[in-house]
Every structure is written in structure tokens, then in C-alpha cells.
Amino acid sequence: MRRATATFHADWRHEYCDSHFGTQAAFEGVPQGFDLNSVGRERDSADLGFDLKTSWTGRGGRLWTATAGYSANLAKNYQSQVYHATLGLAF
Asked: How do the domains of the chain map onto residue ranges?
């Protein structure tokens, strides 16, 4: 038996940046990862991505699964991308 699925995900966030995040750094007490230009500013960001998953029964009746996906965070002045893949075998 073989089965495959594909999903798409998207979400939007509106954030208000403040100074209450990050860990304390040795440099003049400024939190690590803290952007002085972001204090009191609002920003919008969107996460877009997709996941592909397939499963099949192999020899001996064992179930195999494989997944792969991609996700991107799109925000003004900040972007990140994440790729992931997994392969599983059920005993």
C-alpha cells in the first residue's frame, strides 16, 4: 500500500517589538540578539511553506515513511528559510 499527501501552510503575524527578549550580554548590558532599532516598532511577517509525506509497506510488512518540507519566514528586514527531511521505519 502506498500513500502520499501534500500540505501547504501560511500564516501572518503582526508583532510589536520591545526590549523584553534575549539573554544578557557582557557588552553594556544590552540583551543578546536585541536590535536597538526595533524598540517600540511594529512589524508584519508571514510564514509560508509546504510539506510532502509518503508512506509505503516494504518487505516483511514494515511501514516506511518519508517526509520533506520547506518553510520561509518573510518579514521586513528579516528572512529565514528552513528545509527538513525525515525517513522512518516502523518495526
From this structure: 2-90
| CA 17/CA 38 separation, integer angstroms | 6
Cα(7)–Cα(22) distance, integer angstroms: 33
3-32 tens-digit pLDDT: 888 888 887 776 665 544 443 334 444 444
> Is the pTM higher than 0.85?
no
**Residue entry with cell 501552510:** 9
- For residue 28, give the 3-state DSSP assignment: coil
pLDDT tens digits for range 49-64: 888 899 988 888 888 8
Nearest to 3 by CA among 70, 80, 57: 57
Strand partners, 63: 57, 90
26: alpha, beta or left? (left if phi > 0; alpha if psi -120 to 50): alpha
